[in-house]
Batch of 2 targets.
Target 1
Amino acid sequence: MRTKRKSHYRDLRDYIIITIAMLMGSVGLVLFFLPNEITTGGITGIASILYWGFQIPVSLTFFAMNAVLMMLALRILGWKFCVKTIYAVILFTVFTSILQYYVGDLHLLADQKFMALIVGSAFLGISVGLGLSAGGSTGGSDVIAAMVHKYKDVSLGHIILFCDLIIITSSYLVLKDWEKVLYGYCFLFICSFCVDQVVNTMRRSVQFFIISDKYDVIGKAINEFVPRGCTVFDGHGFYSGKKVQALFVIAKKSESNMIFHLIDDIDPNAFVSQSSVIGVFGEGFDQFRARNKQRKQEEKEFIRRALEESEAAKAKAAGAV
């Protein structure tokens, strides 16, 4: 029951984050990029180019092109991948339409285009980062990259960058100004930096080594109130020779204060070491990234043979004894 309730809470949190993310992305596009004719990558960039060239509403192009992509993605990638992206696409379309209707004539930072680029890129980068950390996206080039990556062992980042560079360069056909195209290239770097910062912050994890005579009480409290799993290591003090038990805990950075409070309430004299970790994969954290199917099959076959050889060696050693 608790696991199911926690799952519902996580889903609700993800949808709230996606809602905030899409609102921020719409603000960045409508208030800073469109009036200053700064193009972006992905379907948003294509929609912007059509808006400048033919006055076709951004929201209409954005929704229509993503609808086609989503139909293909549902067939290739499955429903689970697409559901949050579909929600994000609908929200971004609605927010963009509302903002264009009510504040479409507002031209912020009209005489400071580079500042408009930085602020708008930050809004869009944070928007994409929040969406990705919650399991969704605004569709476009990242969906294309996911579909290509399913069949070809090509970097997702390279596919997205290639698509975005083509879209931004093609904006010259409408804008007739290489300076504005260069602003688009700058957008790629600023936006990607913001995306990395947001995603890394949302997924940042820490590890604890806790040495205490009350390790069992601390472990149970962490299991109950954080909740995170704990591993117990047996050891002894080199100088004192005293036997000790150490708890090893991996948790999200946002959970570290709770762990410190629990330790302080149970054993203020406990020895605690905390450090940051680059990546954590497994239950309760990130999933292992997909690999090339052929390579994955070769790895499975190698592991199977290695396990069989190990078992045979153990059986032979036991027989010899």
Target 2
Amino acid sequence: MNAEKPLPRRSLLLGAGALGGGALALSACAGPGTGTTASTAAAEPTVPAGTAVRVGKLSDVKVGGTATGKVNGKTVVIFRPDEKTVLAYDATCTHAGCPVAPAGADFACPCHGSSFKGSDGSVVNGPAKAPLAKLTAALDGEWITVSA
């Protein structure tokens, strides 16, 4: 399992300024139990539901890598399958509601051991039975945007 580098503070500040403070950091975790968490803005204003929010730069998530971020106070997980695509999911485990975290190319729930594929959010192993909820993710130039 490879640890992703966290979003540079400068990118967080530039993104926050571009959206009036609404952008949040996209930071990767090395996996469950590492103590690495996503950075967040101190006072996060909310944007209307369905509005695309910049969560980080595409260059900060390697191909095949995963990361986390926040949109409107909701934790999201990101997977980058190729050079020009990103996928996003609600980070809430469908088993008991614990937050999942990046684990290589997948996402793992530290509470009860469920894991989910980064490529489609489906369950790799339970006790979860339902996939992660898919969110709308897109690229805006060099930025990853997510609507939640």
